[in-house]
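FORM 7B - TANDEM STRUCTURE REPORT

SECTION 1: FIRST PROTEIN
SEQUENCE AND C-ALPHA CELLS:
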Amino acid sequence: DETALFLHRVVSDLPASKQAMLERLHSSDEDLVGETALLVDDDARNIFALSSVLDRRGMNVLKATTGNEAIAIINAQPDVAIVLMDIMMPGMDGYETMQVIRSNPAFRRLPIVALTAKAMKGDREKCLEAGASDYLAKPVNTEQLLSSLRMWLHR
C-alpha cells in the first residue's frame, strides 16, 4: 500500500487480486486481535489516545511511562508481541531503552516501533540504529500506525 502510494500508482489500475489484498489490509484486524502491545510513553495523553485505538482493534495494551518500567514489563510478560516506544522520555530515553531490550537475545526479533515528535532529519536512522524495527512521527497517523502493526504482527 505504501509502495503504491510512493510510486504514484492508482489502486484502481492495479489487478483485481492486488486491489483485494489492499482492501484486506485496510479492513481486517485479524492480525491484531488478541495480540499484546506494550505502549511506552511519558505523556498520559499519548497513552490514552494510542491505547484507545489499539483497544478498539482487540489488542491487549500494557502501558509503561519510563524506560525502566518498559524493560521490567517485557521481562515479566513473555507474550508482548510489539512495542510502541516514545523516544523523548526523561531519564532513560527511547534510544537507550531499545538498546537494553535488544541486548537480550530473546528480544532481538521483537518488533519495536519508535514514535517521536521531533521528526528531524536523521531521526529515522538514529532510531533504527538504536534497535527500532520501524519509525513513525508524532502526531501518529492512525492508518499508518495500524498498517505498521499489521505488517509487523502478520506472521
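SECTION 2: SECOND PROTEIN
SEQUENCE AND C-ALPHA CELLS:
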Amino acid sequence: MRLQLGVVKLGLAISAVALIALWPRAQHGAAMIAAQDDPAKLSELQIADALRQDRGIIARQTEAALSAGDPDLARSFVELATAHQVALPDDLVRRVDDAVRSEQAPTQVASRFATGLVTGQGDDLAALSGTLAGDLFVFGDVRDVIREGKHLATGEAADHLILGLAAAGIAVTAATYVSIGAAAPARAGLTLVKDARKVGRISSGLVTWAGRSAREIVDAPALRRAVADASLLRPARTVEAVKAAVRTDKAGGLMRFAKDVGKIGEKAGTRGAFDALKVAENPKDVARAARLATAKGGQTRAIIKLLGRGALLLATGAWNFASWIFSALLMLFSVVTSLKAGTERLTQRWLDRRRRKATKRALAAKMVPQPAVGVASAASEA
C-alpha cells in the first residue's frame, strides 16, 4: 500500500508540474483559435506574444524602415508602438516625424502625382492619386488597353491581367459617374491592383485568380477588335468598343475583390494595400486584410511587416495550439486521476486501519477470563 501511494504521489507531482508549465501556452492557444476569424484580434495576440519575447523589436523595425527610405512604414511602427504601450526613443520618433514631413512636402507630392498620372504607376498616395485621376478620366485605362492590346496583336508577351483590369476599369468608371461615386471603391481598387501588378507587389496566387477572373468577364474576340481600332486620338470610340467587350454580369467576384482592395487603400494607404496584396493568396485573404485595415488603420503596414500572412489567418500554428490545449487537458486529466487514485488509496488505508483496530479489540475482548458458572450459582444461593 505504501508503494502504491508513493507511485500515486509521484504521478500527481509530475502531472501538476507539467500542467503548470503547459497552462499559459494552452491559454494562448485557445485565445488564438478563438480569434482565428477576427484578423484584428488575431494580430493583437501575436504582436503581444512577440513583444513578450522581444520588447525591442518595434524600435529595430522602425530604424530599418527609415534606413530603407520608407517613412510611411516607420510611422506605422510608431503607431503600433503607441497602441501596445511600447516606449520608443524620443530621437527615433522625431526622425520619423521629420522623414514623413519631408515626404509630404508640396513639391514632392506634386511630382509624384504627375508621375502617377503620366506613367500609370505609383507606390504612395500622391502617385496613386495621379494614377486614379488618369483612370477616372479613362485616359489611364485606355492607355493600358492600347499598350497591352498592341502587344497581343503583334504576338508579343501581353499582360492579360492588366488588360482585363483596364477593360473592367473602363466599364466601372462609367458606372462610377452614373451612380455619383457609389462604385468609386471598386474603381480605386482596380487601379491599386493594376499598380501592384506593374511594380510586382502582388502574390502569384492573386495574379492567377485575378487573371482568370479578368478573362472570364472579357469577350476576347470583341476586345481584340476594339484594340485593333483603338487610339488615344479617339478615346470616346475606344471606350465604347471596350465597354461592349466587358461582360459586367460576370464581374461580381472581381468587383468585390476590388472593393476590398480599395478599402485597404483608404484605411492603410497605398503601400498598405500593396503589402496586403503581396501576402494574400486569394480573395478571402484580401477580405480579411480589409477587416484588419478597417480596425487597425495606420498600424496595418507594421502588423503585416511583422506577421506576414499570419496577420490575416491562423495557418501553420493551428496544430501547435491544438496540441498545447490537448496536452494541458491531458495533464489536467492526469492530475484528477492521480487525486482520485490517491484518495482511494488513503481511504482504503484508513478503512484497513479501522478494521485492524476492530479486530484487535475483538480479540482482546475474547481473551478476558469469565467467572465459572457453578461458583457463581453457589455464591448467589449463599
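SECTION 3: OBSERVATIONS ON SECOND PROTEIN
Residues 317-367 form the longest helix (51 residues).
Confidence is low (pLDDT under 50) at residues 176-182.

SECTION 4: SIGNATURE
Preparer initials: ____
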